[in-house]
Amino acid sequence: MPQPQKVYDCTIIGAGVAGLAVAALLAKDGFKVKLIESHSKPGGCASFFRNEGFRYDVGATTLSGLEEGQPIAELIKELELDKVVYKNKIGTEDKETSLRLSHSKRGIQIFQDGQIIHRYTDKEKWINESYKKLISNKNIDTEKNHRAFWNELYRIEKSAFKILKVHKNLLPNSFKDYLSCLAPSKLLASLSGLTHLPQLYLPLKYLLKKYFLSDETAFIKFLDEQLIISTQNNTEKTPIFTAALGLTYGSSIYYVYGGVNQLAVALQKRAEELGAEILMRREVLQIDIITQSPVNLSTKNNTKNSLSEDFSKTYLIKDKTGEEHLSHKIISNLTFWSMAKLTKGETQNFFQGFVNKFSYDISAFTIYLGLNTNYIPPTDYAQINLNKQIQHCCSHSFYISFSRPDDEIKASEGGLNIIISTHTKAQEWLNLPEEEYLKKKTETESYILEELFNTIPELVKEDGNTENETVQSSIELAASESRISLDKIRYKIKSLISGTAKTFLHYTKRKNGVVGGLPHSVDYSFFELMPKKVPNENIYMVGDTGFPGQGLVSTVYSALSVRESL
Ligand SMILES: Cc1cc2nc3c(=O)[nH]c(=O)nc-3n(C[C@H](O)[C@H](O)[C@H](O)COP(=O)(O)OP(=O)(O)OC[C@H]3O[C@@H](n4cnc5c(N)ncnc54)[C@H](O)[C@@H]3O)c2cc1C
Predict the structure, then answer these.
(1) pLDDT at residue 524 in the model
(2) Does residue 109 sit within a domain?
(3) CA 244 to CA 525: how far, in whole Å?
(4) From ligand 1's centre to the CA of 52, what distance in Å?
(5) Are residues 538 and 557 in the same domain?
(6) What is the pLDDT of residues 204-263, one digit of tens each?
(7) What pLDDT score was predicted for residue 3?
(8) pLDDT per residue as tens digits for the range 483-503
(9) Does the global pTM surpass 0.90?
(10) Is the distance from the beta carbon of residue 17 to the nearest atom of ligand 1 less than 6 Å?
């Protein structure tokens, strides 16, 4: 057994976006940092793979949180991620590239009940569109109420990001955290936070009632499908506060050239440049607490924080190769299910408490599709809301991300990279005989693809079309009886792979391949969620199970928050 020699200041377990972000930030602060990841590639739910010349995001495809002062904008600025240069395969060559973001100004197209609803980024345009297409009881009062409903959500969102900018210590979970809320620089934001408390406990349906919109079925269907994608819940269960973030994110979304995975790739490169040691293909199997103080690595002279007061406790981390790593602090990018397996004693009891409290079985069904077509979709993102549940899934809708024609990393010329995702129960796909698994997977894949091609037939038409023609022909097709059969257009498909809970188990090692983070619900209090620090230990948690919320925005916020605590 190799004898550990060095003791690191901080060891991060997991190279998801949260783990990579905290590794880079702490390395920048002068800590001696090690990151241990089980997969061969960075990113976890925001990782990638290539197939037949197409580069696919495994999970996350849409970036938000990039407005001035919002978490991802703050991270990019602080780490100068846009200046990091790294290699990407373009065609057959490896070329030097860097993070390239572009505002998705045209928003999202949502197909529902034979209509195309443009989720415009512009607030006024969006409110008008939503009223025009989704509200049935049209009169001045309803129009006013509908506008007031959206205005309230936008107000909450604005205020939420203002609070998050000032308060990196949410949720407060120690006396020190609560005390810091009273600091003069934070007091105003703390008071503003208090005004939001009721919105953490009341569901969105309360707001619908307040504005007399509870009978607007098309509107509620639309909101439910938006919420399931952004908050993993619906109007009945999503707290108003969380719903406000989940329903307004469409106002500011970004397209990432090469895919959202580029954020993970840039973060890994930056973390290494800043001195973090990153070990890939090293699944962590065990975390032990040892009390004696082994020899510590000297921290950099310019270190912001001296860790000497914390030297009483040292952690021994064992990875799958048999190697052991010593660290004063652990920052885990894993879920509490995983941590309950890796730890022992009181620490294990702490995580087991959350395992017992929260049952969660939601994973994703994804389709990675490379098409041979000259068609240029009018928006980067779209969503199809159906009237029935998707086969073997637990959702009535699926979300679609398209590549842009000038994105040479995602697809070569004449190719359109399409990523589709929807929600499914993890148990649906686990422990099945191979034949049954493949049969179910093909059924769901065919079901979704047929809906896709019949809703947006331009994708498989011989020649591309303009946006106006798109609208017309989709509606015409919905009215007609003739449906596109998958078999007839298969020749247009250059690459096709589908993913289930098994895929996410592979990419994230999360229990049963459950993804998307813990949904915030009115069924439990915000303050019952997992704190970012294990009591009496130097173990911190980052990632979307620790800080539930809006995907990458919340994972990055959790990294900024843990950095603030150290
Ligand atoms: C299909 C899908 C679509 C999504 N779309 C969006 C979107 O468009 N926009 C958005 O903002 N969010 C989206 N999300 C959510 C977003 O991807 C996640 O919230 C985010 O990527 C989670 O990051 P994380 O760092 O918390 O954890 P993870 O991504 O789960 O990373 C954890 C890492 O830890 C590693 N690991 C696990 N166990 C061990 C171990 N024992 N030892 C070492 N390493 C280990 C894993 O391999 C992984 O790399 C989507 C998610 C999915 C699944």
Answers:
(1) 81
(2) no
(3) 17
(4) 24
(5) yes
(6) 999 999 999 999 999 999 999 999 988 888 999 999 999 999 999 888 999 999 999 999
(7) 55
(8) 888 888 889 999 999 999 999
(9) yes
(10) yes
Q: How many domains does the chain have?
A: 3
Distance 285 CA to ligand 1 centre (A): 19
As a whole number of angstroms, the distance between CA 59 and CA 442 comes to 19
Report the atom number in ligand 1 closest to the C-alpha of 17: 25
Is residue 480 one of the residues assigned to a domain? yes
Are 419 and 401 within 8 A, CB to CB? yes
145 lines ligand 1 (CB under 6 A): no
Q: Ligand 1 pocket, 515 CB below 6 A?
A: yes
CA 394 and chain centroid, separation: 19
Q: Say how far apart CA 161 and CA 300 lie, in whole Å.
A: 33
Domain of 161, in residue numbers: 142-251
Mean pLDDT by 10 residues, the chain (566 residues): 74 98 98 97 96 96 93 97 96 94 95 96 96 97 98 95 80 72 77 84 96 98 94 93 92 96 98 98 95 57 44 88 96 96 96 92 96 95 97 96 97 94 95 96 97 95 51 50 82 96 92 87 82 91 81 94 90
The residue out of 460, 477, 506 marking a domain boundary is 506
Q: Specify if 133 maps to a domain.
A: no
Residues in the chain: 566
CATH number at residue 310: 3.50.50.60
Q: Which of 400, 15, 21 is nearest to 229 (CA)?
A: 400
Candidate of 39, 331, 333, 553 to mutate for ligand 1, largest count of ligand atoms within 8 Å of Cβ: 333
